[in-house]
Amino acid sequence: MRSLSVLFIFLIIISCNTASENTKEEHNQLTISLEKTACFGTCPVFKIKIFNNGDGIFEGKKFVKKTGLIEFKLSQKEIQKILAKAKNIKFTKMLNEYSERITDLPTTYIQIKEKKIKDYYGAPKKLKDLEKLIEKTVLNKLNLDSF
Fold first, then answer.
1. 5 domain-assigned
2. Which residues span the domain enclosing 48?
3. How many angstroms separate the CA atoms of 35 and 110, rounded?
4. How many domains does the structure of the chain reveal?
5. pLDDT tens-digit series, residues 88-111
6. Does 48 reside within a domain?
7. For 33-60, how does the pLDDT look when each residue is reduced to its tens digit (9 = 90+)?
């Protein structure tokens, strides 16, 4: 009987920890991401991830002023500005890929919530402007004028 009681208490503790971890993950959902890939030259290669709680991660890979993982924090106002721009340009209705048969260009992957777009060449100006807004917002947080 005693071993059953210990087992029962152990199961309760484990279930509480699992629920706590799930709640934490739900509050830290990836909301915005931007990734720039390499070209044949010295194009900046980096990833940006912004979570709904304002936490952000910049990962500088090549040809950037800061390499490695750098954490930053955005305000809800800054996140909402990006999301409002995405809504305004009808991001969710845009094509999933903009591409042509051209070589030597970097690819930009941009994601807002569940929608992800591959931008290699030929994307509309309004998508490029959204990409620039995300970059400018993160550059400001990293105290940089360019990547």
1. no
2. 29-141
3. 7
4. 1
5. 999 999 999 999 999 999 999 999
6. yes
7. 999 999 999 999 999 999 999 999 999 9
